Amino acid sequence: MKISGNRFVTKIGIWFVGGSVGLFFVDRFTHLLSNIMGKIFCGDQYMQPVDGVVGDMSCGFNSDMYTAICLLIFAVVGILLILASRK
Questions:
Q1: Helices (DSSP H) in the chain: which residue ranges?
Q2: Is 41 helix (H, G, I), strand (E, B) or coil?
Q3: Which of 3, 2, 12, 1 is nearest to 84 (CA)?
Q4: pTM of this structure
């Protein structure tokens, strides 16, 4: 089975878009990806109480927003790959 260059790039773009949308829904329902990113970037400071409120503000950033931005970038790259592979 031979795959031409344009079809291969299109399939990679579809995987980027589909994977990004799938991970977005998984993260919205479970917050698993955001928690992992927060633990990687903050370490022991992640989810420590600040003024009596437990949250990710102890790191100085909102891990949900960074996760959403990363997934959006992957989706845009996938869309650009799909558009670039068109003749």
A1: 5-30, 32-42, 63-84
A2: helix
A3: 12
A4: 0.76
Tokens of residue 21, six digits: 């949308």
- Whole-angstrom distance, CA of residue 38 vs CA of residue 51: 19
Half-sphere exposure of 69 (CA within 13 A, CB side): 7
Q: Are 68 and 24 in contact (CB under 8 A)?
A: yes
How many angstroms separate the CA atoms of 64 and 56, rounded?
9
pLDDT at 16 over 70: yes
- 35-71: pLDDT as tens digits: 888 888 787 777 777 777 776 666 766 778 888 899 9
Is residue 55 within 8 A of residue 47, CB to CB? The reply is: yes
